[in-house]
Specification:
heterodimer; A: alpha/beta; seven-stranded parallel β-sheet; five-stranded parallel β-sheet; 18 strands; B: alpha/beta; Rossmann fold; nine-stranded mixed β-sheet; 27% helix; globular
């Protein structure tokens, strides 16, 4: 059965988000499992987004719709939502994917509500039976997993970044056509007046391949320098436990855990973190977990793949040094 | 100014979640609380009302089990009343657990529309149980008003709000016409704790009931399962001397390093 899948592909900071590429790749795999169909990507943004649009073909998009104008360069949920809804109505897909980034989680519920259909957020696994999806999503920050079905069409799904792979082999560019936007900035009740980039050049925690997180064992905010140095060697993003954020050592945006960010990087370092259930809930789906803690009874060792029992002030600098050596070959 | 705060009872984040078969958690021994983001939303709403002065009110809305005395939804409305909200609306729902967020948004939208004009609606950015991040943007869409999610700063001047949104890797400042829906991030307001005087007053405040005909779910949880058991970990060694072996394992066994 030929099936139509629409992917709303997020373009931010001069490139497509990795999660957007993963959604296109997943859509292409789904199409093949359904015996054919069409993967359409919708790109909303400014001139740079338009220029990059065709490249979504590499991950398996058959065609790309571009709603691109200078005034759409910055994310605005009201504007982007309205465009995505218009595209979903015009394309009438059976499945709509979006990456479960903060912007994706802002847009998807608007789309679902406007279309009066069900929405499965932050999905980590998808199984297709024909066009009908069975979805898995962690609840209670990973303390339970729900199996979910959507009873309406299109099935609107946001996919957690890093949960599904990119395409195994890249295809060519996809044809791009303009998607007409029938309103302007003056028709909106909300306007973005300024956007301030966060200081860090590092990947966002939710999308990072490697995360180096610190907890109370660091003893003070100044000692996070040790983790920054380790993160620099690894190209990692620094995270923090709730205790450390509550103490004001790190900003809330760094917090990993149930009331912070839920992450699943390839490699997660928990350093000086005992492993409260609240923290484990936010990182236990990481592919490889390394724990460094002086307390051999710390619960973090129960979820860690590799642990070192010891004083982090001795272990971490040594680790940074050894990794530097390894990197230099 | 008329402000609504939509809240939901959620398990305390320190709670052990037991999956008891079927599509629901085992509620035995689980302490329910006002969601941490809902509580910040409530604090902000109350502060805005106080600044706006006469004729302003904050109304707490929740859907849930209607049973008097044991209803978690009623208790959570009372939590908001104890923080200083003026009155509450309870939308009875006999089978609240795993309720489709779209259905909840429809119920809230109906209850709010029934109240006439409004200026602001707050929700938490997410509930910490089903963490759908959905009800706020859905509610705004159904009410036909703008929505800003993950809000860390909010100032109201007449019929316009200046809103700070903490997005990924950036902070956006938006100018938004009221009425609008705001989903609260943690930094929107300081955590407030109810004062004894307000707790006593809360018992006398009115909680109205708004009946809603719940639609069939568009999103359905068919099963809840426990998370996969982590494989038993390996203690590589003690102290800095274990580091070279760790690096070897990360490279060769886990293949977690690109060098």
């Amino acid at each position: 059965m030929a099936s139509k899948i629409l992917v709303v592909a997020e373009f931010r900071g001069g490139k497509f988000k990795k999660g957007a590429l993963e959604c296109v790749a997943e859509a292409a795999r789904l199409k093949n499992s359904m015996g054919g169909g069409e993967v359409t990507a919708l790109v909303i943004g400014g001139a740079a987004a338009k220029q990059a649009a065709a490249s979504l073909g590499k991950q398996g998009a058959d065609r790309v719709l571009c709603a691109c104008a200078d005034w759409l360069e910055h994310f605005n949920g009201d504007a982007y939502g309205r465009i995505a809804v218009a595209a979903a109505k015009a394309e009438a897909p059976s499945v709509l994917f979006i990456s479960a980034t903060l912007d994706g989680k802002d847009l998807a519920p608007r789309i679902a509500a406007a279309l009066d259909v069900g929405y499965a957020p932050d999905v980590t696994k998808l199984v297709a039976d024909g066009e009908k999806l069975t979805l898995t999503r962690p609840l209670y920050a990973g303390k339970a997993y729900a199996t979910v079905v959507l009873e309406t069409s299109p099935q609107v799904v946001s996919i957690r970044p890093n949960a599904v792979p990119l395409a195994e082999s890249e295809g060519g560019d996809a044809p791009v056509s303009d998607f007409a936007v029938d309103f302007g900035p003056d028709d909106l009740a909300s306007k973005v007046s300024s956007v301030e980039a966060a200081k860090s050049e590092k990947a966002d925690l939710t999308e990072a391949e490697i995360i180096v997180s610190g907890g109370r064992g660091l003893k003070g905010p100044e000692n996070f320098q040790l983790l920054e140095e380790l993160a620099d060697v690894l190209g990692a993003t620094v995270g923090a436990s709730r205790a450390v954020v509550d103490a004001g050592w790190r900003p809330h945006s760094d917090q990993v855990g149930q009331t912070g960010k839920t992450v699943s990087p390839n490699l997660y370092f928990a350093i000086g973190i005992s492993g409260a259930i609240q923290h484990l809930a936010g990182m236990s789906t990481s592919k490889t977990i390394v724990a460094i803690n002086k307390d051999p009874e710390a619960p973090i060792f129960k979820v860690a793949d590799y642990g070192i029992v010891g004083d982090l002030f001795e272990v971490v600098p040594r680790l940074t040094e050894e990794l530097k050596k390894a990197k230099a070959g | 100014m008329k402000i609504f705060v939509c809240v939901k009872p959620v398990p305390d984040t320190a709670a052990k979640i037991k999956v008891g078969g079927g599509a629901s958690i085992d509620p035995a021994g689980v302490k329910f609380v006002l969601g941490p983001y809902d509580s910040r939303a409530a604090s902000k709403a109350i502060a805005l009302r106080d600044a706006a002065g006469d004729g302003s009110e904050v109304v707490a809305v929740a859907a849930g089990n209607p049973n008097k005395g044991e209803s978690e939804a009623r208790k959570r409305i009372k939590d908001v009343l104890a923080l200083g909200a003026d009155r509450g609306i309870l939308i009875p729902d006999e089978s609240y657990e795993n309720r489709d967020p779209l259905a909840v948004a429809k119920a809230l939208a109906a209850a709010i529309k029934n109240e006439g004009e409004f200026d602001l609606v707050f929700t938490g950015r997410q509930a910490v149980d089903d963490q759908a991040f959905s009800v706020g943007p859905m509610l705004a869409t159904l009410l036909g008003v703008p929505c800003v999610t993950d809000v860390v700063g909010l100032e109201v001047d007449g019929k316009t709000a200046t809103v700070k949104r903490a997005a990924e890797g950036r902070v956006e400042v938006l100018s938004v016409n009221l009425p609008c829906v705001i989903t609260a991030q943690r930094d929107l307001a300081e955590e407030q704790y109810p004062k004894l005087k307000e707790i006593l007053k809360a018992n006398k405040k009115k909680i109205d009931t708004f009946s809603f005909e719940w639609p069939a779910p568009a999103y359905r949880v068919t099963e809840l399962s426990p998370p996969p058991e982590p494989a038993a970990g390996k203690i590589v060694g003690e102290g800095p001397d274990a580091v070279p072996e760790l690096v070897r394992l990360l490279r060769e066994e886990a293949k977690a390093l690109s060098f």
